[in-house]
What does this fold into?
Amino acid sequence: MRSIINRAVLNTALSETDTQFVLAVLAHHPEWEEKSGCGVLAVEVRMNIGEHFANRGLWLVLLDGSEIDISWPVAIDAAPLSRARLLRDAARHAIADQIRSTRDGGSAVCAICGGKMGVSSAHVDHEPPFTFESIFSGWLEAHPGVALDDTGLHPRFSCPVVAADWQAHHALFASLRLVHAKCNLSQGTRVTKNAPGESGSQK
It folds into this structure.
């Protein structure tokens, strides 16, 4: 990891080989789901500059156009990934085309606060009452024992039919919208209406 970071050209996407290795490591980060959002478009090395320090750090460029830094030492020290987390990761990547489609046809007005924003920097959000977690949890209850393949970058559903079923289920219940990054991250925990086959509240 240190070798990749030190030789990287600043503010430029890593090569495909380096990206695969880096993402395989970063997937162990305790906050990977929050950091990676709807999926990772590219990984870059940038200078992180503070009051008393300046060092090279990793940044994720996400499919929804947002960017966020992430600590690779934290990922290396983390525990192995749980199956539940691998399943959610596979599910998020399976709907990447739906996320991109929402961005391509999105409005330059935040759906939460009504303020103007740049579409390229906006977040793609699931409008309540059906969050990503509620939609996926409901679908997963009807598909126990889903098999996964480890592709190196992220897990995928082994069966294309199962993947297509999940994509159709998500498209049926999800109402995607563009919002300010700040508005999206400030929503916090909320109680939602349950998707079919699910009970309880979701974040």
Q: What stands out?
A: The chain has nine helices and seven strands. The two ends are 33 Å apart (CA to CA). Residues 160-173 form the longest helix (14 residues). The beta strands are 40-49, 54-62, 67-70, 123-126, 148-150, 155-157, 176-179.
